[in-house]
Design a protein that fits this description.
The protein has 3 helices and 5 strands, in the order ββαβααββ. The chain is α+β, with helices and mostly antiparallel strands and 106 residues long. Strands 2-1-5-3-4 form a 5-stranded mixed sheet.
Amino acid sequence: MPTLTFMLADGRRYQVTERVGRSVMDAALDHGVPGILGQCGGGCTCCTCHCYVDKRWADSFGQPHPDETEMLEYAFEPRTGSRLACQLRLTAVHEGLVIEVPARQA
C-alpha cells in the first residue's frame, strides 16, 4: 500500500496510505484532505479534484485521456502537471508520491 503526501497551498501536508488500485481522489476523500472535492464522484465530468503531479511522477500515470484533457481546460490555475485526481490510479510504484492541491478549486 503506497503512502502519498498531499501538499496544500498553505503549507499543510496530509500523509495517507491507500490501497493499490484506488484513485488519488478516493485517497484524498477517504482521509479528509481539504481542497479535493470530487463532486462528480470520479466520473471525469468536473474539475473539483484538480491537482498537480510533479514531473518525476507524471510518466507513472501515463498520458491523460482526451476527456480529462478537455476538463482541465476549465480548472482554476492549470499548469504543467495538472491532472484530475479521479483519473490517477495508484500502483506499487507510487510509494512516496507527492500531490499538490491547488489553492482554489471549482
